[in-house]
Structure formats: C-alpha cells, structure tokens
Design goal:
Helix content: 40-55%
Largest sheet: none
Shape: rod-shaped
Order of helices and strands: HHH
Oligomer: single chain
Length: 142
Amino acid sequence: PPPIGPEGPGAPVGYGYPGYPQGAQGYGGWAPPMPPQNGMGVAAMVLGILSCALFCMYGILSLVLGVLAIVFGVKGRKRAERGEATNHGQAQAGFIMGIIGTILGIAVIVLLAIGITAAINSEDDSDYYDGSLAVVATVQAG
C-alpha cells in the first residue's frame, strides 16, 4: 500500500514540492517564463555612446560603430514591441545616438577630405623648408 501522507489517509501522494502543480513539466505543463532578452538594446546603447565619443578618430570608427548601433537599435526596438525585451528606451537611445555618431563620423571624414584637398592644391609654399641657407655677414671697415 502507498505510504500515508501528511494530509491524512486517502490523500494522493505526489512527488515534488508543495504548491507546485503536479504532472509533466514541459509539453503543455507549467514552465517558468523566459527572461527578457535585452542584449540588443544594451548593445545599441553602448555602441551609440562609443560612436558619439570616438568621432575624433578620423571619423571611420564613429561611422562603423554608428551604423552598428542603428542596426542593433532597430532590432532591440522590435524585440521590445513584441514583448521579448523590456528595454525599449535603451534601444531607442542607442538608435538615436547611432544616427548622431554616424552624422559626426561623416562630417569628420568630409572635413578631413576638404582639408587634405586644400593642402594639396595650395600654391603657397612658404610653409615648407626648401633646403637653402642664407648667411649674411656684415663687414665694418676700420
């Protein structure tokens, strides 16, 4: 015969912890909810901050990080809208900072291109050393 449980004789004896549903766990049974997947929003925000801060490194790094922040920001916002993530604000901030970082990167690249082009086409050679030395000596008679 089955052992007598703490509920008394005749009560069903089950395995597991009290308060949890009995039966198969998994296929149609009780399962804990999935934790939110906030990785895309966090990555977008970090990359957006870095793209805004590192625009002074010739613009290339800012441009690449900004585009990545935009991509991750869009994916993070879509996950938050579907309910898979809880950080819609972080994804939105990363998206916006990615746009700003991309614009800063493009602006730095354009300014560098204009500066290099202006320096190459400059007619003024007074800034360069031509290799000749002038020695002036004054002789006094007397």
